[in-house]
Amino acid sequence: MTKEDFKSTLKKHRADIIVIASLLLLSMITLLIITLTRKEGLAVRVEIDGETVAEYPLDVDGEYVLGGGTNVLTIKDGEAYMTYSECPDHTCEETRRAKYVGNTITCLPNRITVTVIGEKSSDSPDIESW
Fold this sequence. Notes:
By secondary structure, the chain is of the alpha+beta class. It has helices at 3-12, 14-37, 91-94, and strands at residues 43-48, 51-57, 62-66, 71-76, 79-85, 104-107, 112-117. It has two domains: 3-37; 43-117, mini-chromosome maintenance (MCM) complex, domain 2 (Sandwich). Mean pLDDT is 89; it is low at 126-130.
């Protein structure tokens, strides 16, 4: 390819290059904003069948049996993760550790959802006080 052919090709695709570069820049800015503004959670809310059953602080290490023994939630070093599940696929055990507000861990077969929250809810059950 000669220099003139390259310049000609570049002129033909200039708009495409501008659009792609703009999208990449916008994506990087969005990722930077999300990364810089996320907040570490204070606790996790455990819901079974859509009903809140417990909240546990993230600053206290511990293991919690959920759903009558179907799952075990572990909190260590400010992060929550599932260490045991009776479900067939064990997807919740492979989920990334949750520590930022809004992060969730879900075990669909056992209908358990663990969500990182920023503060204790006023209407939460007093199962685990913190």
